[in-house]
Write a structure and sequence with these properties.
Length: 80
């Protein structure tokens, strides 16, 4: 799929380098990679952000938990 990352369940597309947010709120994060979980064949997104102390942080989230617009605190339907 190259730089495009697809969330088949939602029809939502993101590309590496896009800024995303957790639907439940939090800092702006940059999509850095798509990762396929071999055991389940699910796709998750690797994201990175800087915390309040300026330290680089990273995490893996299912696409269903992310949005490209800053939320007001919408609940995430699933989590890892």
């Amino acid at each position: 799929m190259g730089a495009e990352i697809a969330a088949i369940e939602t029809g939502w597309l993101a590309e590496v380098g896009d800024v995303v947010y957790l639907k439940s709120g939090g800092p702006a994060m940059t999509v850095s990679q798509e990762m396929r979980i071999p055991e389940t064949e699910d796709t998750s997104l690797v994201v990175h952000w800087y915390d309040e102390e300026g330290k680089l942080q990273g995490a893996l989230f299912p696409p269903e938990c992310l949005t490209m617009t800053k939320p007001d605190a919408v609940q995430c339907p699933s989590a890892l």
